Fold this sequence. Notes:
Elements: H1 11-42, H2 54-60, H3 63-93, H4 101-109, H5 111-114, H6 116-127, H7 132-139, H8 153-177, H9 181-189, H10 194-222, H11 226-230, H12 241-250, H13 255-280
Amino acid sequence: MRRRRAGEASELDAMAVACLLPSLLYVVVMFVYPFLNGIYLSLRPSKQSGLGLANYVAFFTDEWQYRTVWITFSIAVPNTVVVVAVALLLAYGMRRGIWLERTITTILVLPISLGIILLAEGILGFYGGRGWFNQILLAAGLLQEPLTLTHNYTGVMLSLFMQQFPFCFLMLLGYISGIDPSIENSARTLGAGPWIVFSRVMFPLIAPGLAIAFALVFVLSFGVFPSAILLGQPAGATRTIAIAAYQQAFEHYDMSYASAIAVVMGLFQLAGLVVIVLLRRRLVMAPTMGVGKR
């Protein structure tokens, strides 16, 4: 093969560009164009000619929309914290393998294959007013009246947890299992107990992966839509910002205002990602070598 001169493009460079083109085209068609088109539509109010910020002014001067944003944050942030915390505890306990690990992992990730609609039906059937959960508690004499766990804030939180926990758990399990076990063993050899090993040795190494998991779960939770409709109160307590955009687009037929709401939602999600990424840069970055689990 002819030696490549300095500054001359190699065959590998051309192959890399050829391989990247389909991916770049997909990103432009599926993400960049809809995003830019949404911004353009949001700047063209339906009752005004030309471009303007009337939709954004209307959104940020409407107290009802402030309540919608608050509801969305009140769902997204607690759900993210709970999902990441539970996934961390389980993944940390299973980092070196346990008995029936594959069976337990299969059960934990099973909700991924069910889909949101089937999962919502399952939650309504089990946690509903006449569901198995209430029937068992009533039969045991632990309750006098059935608990209201669906068509409210609790129902949405249950649905989000079951949807997002498998992704977060698998991500953290892979990350934690990849940390070199000799680091943990060295700490134990020096006399560190389980809590010291976790808090001073393992947690700083896990934190970068934990930040990424937190960011992804937060973004997914902030865009909650089907769960808030099927298991919540879309006209009241669980009217999220995604539902507000849907109502403007398909109930009031104001696509311009709906686009402005969608852009605002995207900006909130982007702001959350930026904060988490900036915090992650301050953390200790440790290599994960995939040798933790034998």
